[in-house]
Amino acid sequence: ETEGHLEPLRRIVQELEQWFPQHADMMDAALVFHMTEVGFDPAHPEAFQPKVAEGVTSISSCGSSSCG
Fold first, then answer.
1. Is the pTM of this model over 0.70?
2. Which bin fits 63, alpha (ψ -120 to 50), beta or left (φ > 0)?
3. Residue 68 CA: distances (Å) to CA of 7, 9, 11
4. Alpha-helical runs (H) found in 1-68
């Protein structure tokens, strides 16, 4: 009886094994692109000074009236 309850979990694990490597590669590529766009140099991470686009302001709250 318990064996039947584990089948959905086994299927999810099999799907994740195929999905995750491609997902991680894609997300890593997007992160590298973004870091390059904002001026990050992996050879000199201590010198990182983010580029800020003109007219962009810093985020100072969560955007909700319930947090300040």
1. no
2. left
3. 46, 41, 44
4. 2-37
